[in-house]
Request: fold
Amino acid sequence: MEGLGRKVLVAAFDGWNDAGEAATAAVNVLQESGAYEEVYSIDPELYFDYQYTRPIVSFDADGRRELTWPRTVLLRPARARRGTQLWLLTGVEPARAWQSFANEVVDVALREDITGLVALGSMMSDVPHTRPITVFTGSDNEVLRDQLTLERSSYEGPVGVLSALSFFAERVGIPTASLWASVPHYVSGHAPSPKASLALLDRLEDLTGVAVPRGDLASEAARWEATIDAAAADDDEMTEYIQQLEATRDTWDDPEASGDAIAQAFERYLRRGDPGKPGNGQ
Reply:
């Protein structure tokens, strides 16, 4: 079996891995656009710190107060169909015992014959909201990188639970890939970021070959971008900063740009961004 196989688990967690709520919103669109049923729910008592991720009180349909606890659930398509199927893993990033958490999820994945894992994440980056959202598509699995033309991340540093989960999945023979959307850092007040969710789903479809529903993300993304345009129009400093990001992005996207030209443009951008550096009017 090549690639990610026919039972692909798509995972996203609310928390550190989910800038602009882009990853969890993407999984929510998948869940809401198709019939899914719960296969497994992880006991929150083992993995959550309720001072950090608090339960929520609300009223049920009969007017009674109830508590909703943070949880992680595994969902499968309610109806079997030919071709590749997308299973879902979603919840809140746990606060402790990540090794036990990852092993528990992987044990269930093995029991359900999951053949591949795709982790969805999003991060704040120095990118403009006016350009297509960049999605890094990578894998630590050499065979998968060759088959699907994926990149290998050179990142070293702190990670989220997605990385731990992928590590343990690979260790038992479940090939993994990761999709990370770059969310403009200056739009943190405009969460969620539907344009990033849409980009993740577009790339997920490319990766798995599954026709992925988008829900209303296209129209929501257009409204999101227009809202930020309006905010920037009233802020000269923000407008100038976005123009700088656009120039840098356009240089990177230019197929005729040489490595030296890209490096020089990036240097100019850095100098403009730091008024204390030489070459910036001093």
